[in-house]
Amino acid sequence: MITGSLYGLLRIIVVGPLAYLILIAILRVSGKRTLAKLNAFDFVVTVALGSTLATVLLSKDVPLLEGVLGFSVLAILQFIIAWVAQRAKPVEAAIKAEPRILLLDGRVDQAALLDERVTEDEIRSAVRKGGLGTLDRVAAVVLETDGSFSVIPADTAGDRSALPGDRRGNTPDPR
Questions:
Q1: What is the DSSP string of 2-43?
Q2: 27, 47, 79, 152 - which has most CB atoms within 10 Å?
Q3: Which helix (H) or strand (E) is 110 found in, with range?
């Protein structure tokens, strides 16, 4: 039980590198977007690729060719959905979250924090990681579509054209 069968161990030694190399090849062909964590859909594809790789490696019931087909299907679906989302706003809205301003001009938006399930302590942590020691020096903290925080210092905010919504930071609520 501790070592498994010789067949199982040899299978992992042979199939593991092959599956890994094939996955790398598929990812190179499908482009950087396949591994980008730009939104929930991209994250799901990344996790599914890892899960498929693990299944191919550890399950004797899944032949390498079926695993390769699984990798390919995921990469192709991700490509198709991203391509359609670029061209159809309703599809884009369905699969992508909108960035959300959580702090503007040093003031925390409590309603946004509640909606996004973020705490003030998390905002303060993001500000500290951004190298700032006071909220007064922050033009905006944005919760990005991938769940990360962007901290824009007041002295580098410029005309604020990079902020979501209008330049005052009023983000349209997609819900």
A1: -S--HHHHHHHHHHHHHHHHHHHHHHHHH-GGGG--SSHHHH
A2: 152
A3: helix 110-116
- Domain tally for the chain? 2
Please give the DSSP secondary-structure letter assigned to residue 101.
Answer: E
Residues 12-53: tens digit of each pLDDT:
999 999 999 999 898 888 877 776 666 777 888 888 999 999
User: Are 85 and 113 in a shared domain?
Assistant: no
**Residues whose CB is less than 8 angstroms from the CB of residue 34 and which lie 6 or more positions away in sequence, other chains included:** 27, 42, 45, 46, 49, 75, 78, 79
Helix (H, G, I), strand (E, B) or coil at 153: strand
Domain span including residue 120: 98-156
105-155 tens-digit pLDDT = 999 999 999 999 999 999 999 999 999 999 999 999 999 988 889 999 999
pTM here?
Answer: 0.69
22 with 70, same domain: the answer is yes
Spatial distance between the Cα atoms of 99 and 126, rounded to a whole number of angstroms? 15
Are 40 and 74 contained in the same domain? Answer: yes
